[in-house]
Every structure is written in structure tokens, then in C-alpha cells.
């Protein structure tokens, strides 16, 4: 029974992801920030969808942060510094099918607090 519940949750997230991605696309000037969260860590990347290239990325595991709200803010700060180094200040935020609360919202707020326009 537990496996069925996990499959259903994943199917619902993929459904939300497809619905959101139908409207969101990144360019070189305004890349798409794609967020992935596991139970332990948080990952994000800036993607140019026109050419299909990853412009910048951040790995919470390598930085030593877990997947909590406080850690999401710190990961967002590190990612904002990476984006600023590449002269990217305006981005499109892709929550990747996750609901906008908790860690996902904390990451977005951390980006905004560090000068990235979503």
C-alpha cells in the first residue's frame, strides 16, 4: 500500500510540473531556475531553454546544507552569488511541481533577499 501512495504522489507532482512548465520558459537574459528537493538536500540550476544549456547550478549537499527552510535560505544566497557573477539578475522561477510553501518558498525568498528578481 505504501508503494501505491508514493506512486500517486509522484504522479501528482509530475502532473503539476507539466502544467507549470507549459507557461514557463527560460532565455539567456532571463533563465529558468529549476528547483529540486529531496528529503535530505536541495538542488537548483539556471537553465536557458532556447539552447538547452545549464548556465549555473548549486548543490546543497556539496555546500553541507540539508533540506530545511534555514538551509534553503543559505543555498539561495550561494546561488544568488553565482548568478550575479554571471551577470544574471532576472530569472523565472520554476518550482518543479512542488507546492509553494516551506523550503520552496524559503528558497525563492532567499533569492529575492539577495538581489535576484523573480
Characterization of the model:
The relative contact order is 0.18. Strand 1 and strand 2 (42-48) form a beta hairpin. This protein has a single domain, classed as Nucleotidyltransferase, domain 5 (2-Layer Sandwich), CATH 3.30.420. It has four helices and four strands. It is an alpha+beta fold and 118 residues long. It has helices at 2-21, 60-63, 69-85, 103-113; strands at residues 32-37, 42-48, 53-59, 92-94. A four-stranded mixed sheet has the order 3-2-1-4. It holds the Pfam family Ribosomal_L18p. Part of the 50S ribosomal subunit; part of the 5S rRNA/L5/L18/L25 subcomplex. Contacts the 5S and 23S rRNAs. Belongs to the universal ribosomal protein uL18 family. One of its GO terms (cellular component) is cytosolic large ribosomal subunit. Keywords: Ribonucleoprotein, Ribosomal protein, RNA-binding, rRNA-binding.
Amino acid at each position: 500500500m505504501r508503494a501505491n501512495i508514493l506512486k500517486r504522489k509522484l504522479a501528482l507532482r509530475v502532473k503539476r510540473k507539466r502544467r507549470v512548465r507549459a507557461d514557463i520558459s527560460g532565455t539567456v537574459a532571463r533563465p529558468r531556475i529549476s528547483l529540486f528537493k529531496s528529503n535530505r538536500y536541495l538542488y537548483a540550476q539556471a537553465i536557458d531553454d532556447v539552447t538547452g544549456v545549464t548556465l549555473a547550478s548549486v548543490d546543497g549537499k556539496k555546500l553541507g546544507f540539508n533540506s530545511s527552510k534555514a538551509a534553503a535560505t543559505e543555498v539561495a544566497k550561494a546561488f544568488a552569488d553565482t548568478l550575479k557573477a554571471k551577470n544574471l539578475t532576472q530569472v523565472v522561477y520554476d518550482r518543479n511541481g512542488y507546492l509553494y510553501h516551506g523550503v520552496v518558498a524559503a528558497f525563492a525568498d532567499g533569492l529575492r533577499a539577495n538581489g535576484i528578481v523573480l
